[in-house]
Amino acid sequence: MHLEDLAEQAAHYRNEEAHIEREVRVCVAASCQSSGALPVLDALKSACDSRGAGSCKVKGVGCMGLCSAGPLVAVADKECDLSESLLYRDVTPEDAPEIMASVCGAPVERLLCPTDQPFFSRQQRIVLENSGLIDPDSLRGYIAVGGYAALIQALTEMTPADVLREVTASGLRGRGGGGYPTGLKWSTIAKMPPGQKYVICNADEGDPGAFMDRAVLESDPHRILEGMAIAAYAVGASKGYVYVRAEYPLAVERLELAIRKAKRAGFLGAKVADTQFAFEVEIRLGAGAFVCGEETALMASIEGLRGQPRPRPPYPAESGLWGCPTLINNVETFANIAPIIREGGDWFASIGTEGSKGTKVFALAGKIQNTGLIEVPMGTPLRDIIEVIGGGIPDGRAFKAVQTGGPSGGCIPEAHLDIPVDYDSLKTLGTMMGSGGMIVMDETSCMVDVARFFMEFCMSESCGKCIPCRAGTWQMHGLLDTLTKGQGTRADLARLEDLCEVVRATSLCGLGQTAPNPVLSTLRYFRDEYEAKLLGDRAP
Amino acid sequence: MTLPPARPPLPSDDKRWKLVNATMRRNGYAGHALIETLHSVQDAFGYLDETSLRFVAASLDLPLSKVFGVATFYHIFMLKPKGRHTCVVCTGTACYIKGAGGLIEGVQEHYGIDPGETTADDRLSLLTARCVGACGLAPAVVVDGEVLGKQAADTLVPTLEELA
Predict the structure, then answer these.
(1) How far apart, in whole angstroms, are the C-alpha atoms of residue A63 and residue A207?
(2) Are residues A375 and A325 in the same domain?
(3) Searching chain A, which residue's CA lies closest to the CA of residue B30?
(4) Region A171-193: what's the mean pLDDT?
(5) Member of which family (chain B) (predicted)?
(6) CA atoms of A480 and A112, how far apart (whole Å)
(7) Number of domains in chain A
(8) Residues A242 and A329 in one domain
(9) Do B134 and A30 touch (CB under 8 A)?
(10) Residue A123, Cβ neighbours under 10 Å: how many?
């Protein structure tokens, strides 16, 4: 298959829809489904049928971002301008006839959700460019917006070395949290002697408070497959696995369907797009273990073992799944690949900061007005994300801290909110990018209790293989528990700080090494709250 | 010449064993399909009992210790039967900040069960989860597979009461 053939197909699919005067898009990602999006979709479909055949189309689409206002419905009229859609919030099935009856220029005012607010206007969408626009279950829909063109381009017009060059030039860094340069990782695996190699997509989004990968998988699953296939071509792999959490049944379902459809259409399989390149993808389900987000534990889990990490080196690039060279990247990393191939690495490198290129998807949650999913260029100040895009703290309360990086990250106080967000700036604050969860806390949150919460998490998620983590998290949790109850002494606090250092320095894998981070960062910025709890003093 | 290991007979004529067998066959009875197989046992039977663990171990030619090790390592696998209804309270960070603790306390108080336990009449199991990914709707619970967002103890308990 040539690029021209695919472009022709895409044009054909777009033409088929040319007669549609009104397109109604209903968010059917998990969050809106929980708010009742499916009955809304059905009601709109029947209202559409009674409006007149063929002139309108109602479709389910992926995440539109503003989860707290779900179910969200977007209406695009040809008469006005198809690209300028109206957004309705908190839609119920009873609203369907009214929405369908409304005409261009006279929307249903009471349901309107302004799209010129900063939450939407300040975003720059690369990873989520199709999210909320295309039907995730439709391969045609993906092709119509230019899907799989990057894969065909790579296979027919580029050598694997060309692909590696573009990805390296893009400056893309691993979006799973580590921030390892993607081009470098790919090149290492490509240099390994030919033979069996694997590509793994890490979709074991275990950080509590993070739902970016889930939204990408549920909104645009083909893009992940396309990114994986391009990666496999570049490094010389023929087999891929997507390791997804079993807690994400909808994502698994959509991904399974996407794999089946891509296979049938020849974008996966023995001869991808009629070339000599072969690539198969299989799904592997997680089973509820946070540590399986660590790459060596993840591979153990794919091999059917307990998800326990092993020491590195050897790194997976050298000896990974079943001892073969293995490329592991996060969902969001793979989602960035197709645009990089399409627009070029230099284009991608022009976005973001010196050390962190491109955009980052963040999941805003906690005590914040606009909870949901956003994508902003790297380097956007934290204050803009929280106060402008996120709309600030509800109920007139005061901001206290924002937690990034999940159980491996830390809390950032008000004083540092003006920092531009990228991998390196967050590290200097004692936290990390992590996968992109941002939990906002207001003045009612007790930071000692927050530290205890994360330590409890790490304690119960510790795999038990190495002693510093297994015993250390247990001891630290005990100390934090004593402290939160106001029964701790100054000696307890000192012991806690010692333990943090020991566990950080001596644990086997990332889980243990970073488990002290929430404690260290809260101690750094909110030490007064710990002090106030000592000897039975009352805390805020 | 080595013969392939003999497959054990199905533990009973319960049709659900055929589903489990199908999963193992699809994966060529490979040992690395253990987690997939346990998932299918749990989907079919609701939990993993000793009979099923022994059957899976024998079928995949794995030591029982390894099968038991995997079954107990992963949180999702249950070794005890669940009640007719399940209420999973999300204890992820966003839900914690927004009051998941109060939801658990509400259920504990009303039914007298702790997380991981089932009521004496086998009606309801209370479970917790590490983030169900519905952070935009925090605090969230999953009742019989359906995610309910923005919950409070005084809305959750009546919902649970309405379950048959």
Answers:
(1) 19
(2) no
(3) A304
(4) 95
(5) Belongs to the complex I 24 kDa subunit family.
(6) 46
(7) 4
(8) yes
(9) yes
(10) 18
Cβ separation A35–B137 shorter than 8 A: yes
Q: What pTM does this model have?
A: 0.94
Token pair belonging to B162:
């309405």
Q: Which one of A216, A439, A455, A463 makes the best mutation probe of the B interface by having the most chain B beta carbons within 10 Å? A: A439
CA–CA distance from A514 to each of A364, A483, A498, B32 (Å)?
22, 21, 15, 30
Residues A296, A326: Cα–Cα separation, whole Å: 10
Give the minimum alpha-carbon distance from A287 to chain B in angstroms, rounded to a whole number: 5
A283 has which bridge partners? Answer: A242
Is A537 a residue whose pLDDT tops 60? no
What are the domain boundaries of chain B?
Answer: 16-73, 85-162
Rounded CA gap, A404 and A426, in Å?
Answer: 9
- The C-alpha atoms of residue B10 and residue B16 are separated, in whole angstroms, by 10
Q: Are A471 and A492 in contact (CB under 8 A)?
A: no
> Which of the two residues, A210 and A257, has the higher pLDDT score?
A257
Fold that domain B85-162 belongs to in CATH: Glutaredoxin (3.40.30)
Same domain, A195 and A301: yes
User: Residue A387: is it exposed, middle or buried by C-beta count within 10 angstroms (0-12/13-18/19+)?
Assistant: middle
Average pLDDT over residues B67-81: 94
Question: Is pLDDT of A114 > 80?
Answer: yes
Closest CA to A292 of B139, B143, B76: B76
Length of chain B: 164
CATH assignment of the domain containing A110: 3.40.30.10
Q: Judge contact between A142 and A130, C-beta under 8 A.
A: yes
Q: Report the DSSP pairing between strands A22-27 and A56-61.
A: parallel
Of the candidates B70, B130, B149, the beta carbon closest to that of A208 is on B130
Q: Is the pLDDT of residue B85 over 70?
A: yes
A330 and A219 together in one domain: yes
pLDDT at residue A83 above 80?
A: no
pLDDT tens-digit readout, A315-329: 999 999 999 999 999
Which of the residue ranges A528-537, B64-73, B83-92 has the most confident prediction, judged by mean pLDDT?
A: B64-73
Point out which residues pair with A269 in neighbouring strands: A279
A422 token code pair: 């990228």
How far is the C-alpha of B156 from the C-alpha of B146, rounded, in Å? 13
Question: If you average pLDDT over residues A152-157, what whole number do you get?
Answer: 97
Tell whether A151 and A241 lie within a shared domain: yes
Write the CB contacts of A256 (distance below 8 Å, at least 6 apart in sequence).
Answer: A283
Q: What string of H, E and C letters represents the secondary structure of A248-301? A: CHHHHHHHHHHHHHHHHCCCCECCHHHCCCCEEEEEEECCCCHHHHCHHHHHHH
Residues recorded for chain A: 540
